[in-house]
Amino acid sequence: MRKLTVALGERSYPILIGEGVLDSADAIAAAVNTPRVAIVTNDVVAPLYLDRLTATLARAGIAYDSVVLPDGEAHKNWQTLNTIFDALLAGHFDRSTTLVALGGGVVGDMAGFAAATYQRGIPFIQIPTTLLSQVDSSVGGKTAINHPLGKNMIGAFHQPQLVLADTAVLNTLPDRELKAGLAEVIKYGLIRDPAFFDWLESHIDKLLGRDPLALAEAIERSCANKSQIVSEDETERGVRALLNLGHTFGHAIEAGMGFGVWLHGEAVGAGMVMAATLSQRQGWLSMQQYERTVALIARAGLPVLGPRLGAARYLELMAHDKKVEAGRLRLVLLRDIGDAEIFSDVPTADIAAAIDACCESA
Amino acid sequence: MRKLTVALGERSYPILIGEGVLDSADAIAAAVNTPRVAIVTNDVVAPLYLDRLTATLARAGIAYDSVVLPDGEAHKNWQTLNTIFDALLAGHFDRSTTLVALGGGVVGDMAGFAAATYQRGIPFIQIPTTLLSQVDSSVGGKTAINHPLGKNMIGAFHQPQLVLADTAVLNTLPDRELKAGLAEVIKYGLIRDPAFFDWLESHIDKLLGRDPLALAEAIERSCANKSQIVSEDETERGVRALLNLGHTFGHAIEAGMGFGVWLHGEAVGAGMVMAATLSQRQGWLSMQQYERTVALIARAGLPVLGPRLGAARYLELMAHDKKVEAGRLRLVLLRDIGDAEIFSDVPTADIAAAIDACCESA
Question: Binding residues for NAD(+), per the UniProt record (chains A, B) (predicted)?
Answer without folding.
Answer: 71-76, 105-109, 129-130, 142, 151
